[in-house]
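Below is how a single chain appears once it has passed through the pipeline. First comes the sequence as given, then the structure the pipeline wrote out for it. We keep one example in the README because the format questions we get most often are answered faster by looking than by reading.
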Amino acid sequence: MAFHSRRLYYFPALLAVVLQLLHGVSGQLVVVEEPVSTPPPPLVVAEEPISAPTPPLVDQSSGDGLVPALFVFGDSLIDNGNNNNIPSFAKANYFPYGIDFNGGPTGRFCNGLTMVDGIAQLLGLPLIPAYSEATGDQVIRGVNYASAAAGILPDTGGNFMGRIPFDQQIHNFETTLNQVASKSGGAVAIADSVTRSLFFIGMGSNDYLNNYLMPNFPTRNQFNAQQFGDLLVQHYANQLTRLYNLGGRKFVVAGLGRMGCIPSILSQGTDGKCSAEVNQLVLPFNTNVKTMISNLNQNLPDSKFIYLDIAQMYEDIIANPATYGN
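Resulting structure:
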């Protein structure tokens, strides 16, 4: 998800997720479906390009965040430049992308900051660098591995040529761990830092848009909606368990939004309305992810998995726009 307005706000539900994760009980499933009653102040007043956000929950200048680092895995909704230097049709390193971002286009698929940029600022961290660009001590505070067109399944997004599927993103995280261990006191020190760090994962959109719904992919002929949702979440659970085995303990897992309402789907209709068929199609995935998270919390000791209900967040924004500013 990207912030597309010229005024960028902390979403109340996003703040609730961060606080629940940091202070929640181990093994607790938190489904964020309702906003907090009073929204926090705006992150940025952006009549001018983004330059200075309002203060986060902690003072960034102190060098101490609420967590040691933020590690990000996902697709174009949170990609911040990993596709810039690979042969891919899925790029956003040109205008009008980045028109409100200080420095211009970066590879983010939006005008300014993404959701994970907002989370980083809430946590008192700097903007997290893309894996393709992170150097030196930058990786100590986190890395963004997200790649536009990427999916849970390795074949997803092949119509865009280059992309970094979730399995490869996890492999890249492993590479980062080895790099950091050689610089920062060895594997034991890194393991402690990773267990206290936050992992944000937002995957699945492309498995529908650039796989199941694509006529040149066989999956829709092989699986009905429920079967495909089951297949995705079986892979997803194994991938998240792999991150857990690499040391992760605090996870925010974003569900899918109302995908029948995105521009590429709307453009296929003639009445300007959302596709009820596509919205229904992704429901089994979200339902399965909630169950998966509950199971992971129960079966993986000391883990804290939280489900971020993107669909509900956007429905609340549409239903109560005044709550989120003009």
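The first strand starts at residue 7 and ends at 9.

See the next section for the split statistics.
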